[in-house]
Amino acid sequence: MDRISTGILALDKILGGGLPQGSTILLVGRPGTGKTILAHQMMFENAEKDDKVLYLTTLSEPQFKIMKFQQEFSFFDLDKVQSNVIYRDLGSVLRKQGTTQTINLIDNYLKEYQPKMVIIDTIKTFADIIPDSMEFREFVIDLSTRFTTWGCTTILLGEYSEEDIEIRSESAIADGIIYLYGTEEKRQQKRYLRVLKMRGTNHSNGEAVFKISDDGVSVYPRLNFMEMKQEFTHYSERVSTGVSNLDVLMGGGIPKASTTLITGPSGSGKTMLALSFALQGLKAGSKIVYVSLEENPLQIINNFLQLGQDIKPYIDQGLLHIVYVSPIELDLDEHVYRIQELVREVGAQRLIVDSISSFEIGMSDKVRYTDYIWGLTDYFKSHGISVLLTHEMRDSSALSALTKHGISFVADNLVLLAFKEDGIHLKRYLRVVKMRGSRHSAELKELIIDELGVSIR
Predict the structure, then answer these.
(1) Contacts of residue 319, Cβ cutoff 8 Å, sequence gap at least 6
(2) Residue 186 DSSP one-character state
(3) Is the pLDDT of residue 396 over 90?
(4) Phi and psi dihedrals of 230, rounded to 5?
(5) Burial category of 338 from C-beta neighbours within 10 Å (exposed 0-12, middle 13-18, buried 19 and up)
(6) Among 74, 129, 172, 446, whose Cα sits 20 to 30 Å from the Cα of 335?
(7) What pTM does this model have?
């Protein structure tokens, strides 16, 4: 089946390659959910060369008002307006002369412009004017048949709730339904998109987060755990932690393409071990993505200086990529998607997330939080990438705390850090608690952090 792009790569992926060409799609949601913006983004994407797109307004909003607000987005191209992007109004004819004359007017537009895509904003106006449900159903079928005959991909906008969709006659007639909705939260509004129906397409199910910016709509698909079901390559290679004695405890280092979780109380040395792991990889020529949710890039650069290393040259060479997001602004769906895309784009061999405790803060559903951490790590393991996560644990003496929300389950290797009093001194200690499929020493060792860096004795 031929496809046409929505202009949003992630949405095309959700749809299995884009909208089926020649289909009739309902783009629905309550007022203010972003339907008009998404429709315009699709429209300008497909108004290329000799291809024309027809935007038909009804009684919802005047054309000049629609154009006034849409031209604020970067996808809006004024040069295409009235050449490739054609706005026409159906409202006056529909209101004064009825549906028959409106159909005739649409026929004339189809003959004159032969558009690749037609958008009607909104189909609900027709439903309000045609009170008889059977007559309206026949009207929609007639409309859809005309567009299909002309080979048009049709987008019908509708101001419907999810409950409305189930009982609307146009829902049964449409080839696809894309539903936009939002939730109001104390910090910010969250917007979601779901493909409820798409004939002839093996589309992705479930909600996807989307945001509206100056560039229009950006979609962040939820982590698809079905993608995790793939063959994993067996790696016998080890990668160094950057701390020689820790490599010895771990039987030669961390197995490549495994997930290592470093957990312990605040100040126990989690970040310094993560920095050592990153630095060793940089010196070996590996590309690193370092995700921080607690310290900004300048702080991280200064932390590397404590290890005696200026990492700015590695950043300039494109070997080290630092990603910082404040937990206050964290949207886990978007963040996980961005991490995956960045690791793929730069070809990173190591991923460090410091710390996943901030993920936990950013998501109220703890079961979903665990699913995301598992899916995130499994995705990278399947692509041969070594992952190191840090996690703050208040009481390191209680081993049962390691199983909180099932986080220890996602880790192949688990390193526990702790404090112990030694007279007037407070010393740091380290223990390798587990390593899947590998022999290791579980002996308790002192962790030293000084001007020489990180060491174990």
Answers:
(1) 282, 285, 286, 287, 288
(2) S
(3) no
(4) -145, 165
(5) middle
(6) 74
(7) 0.78
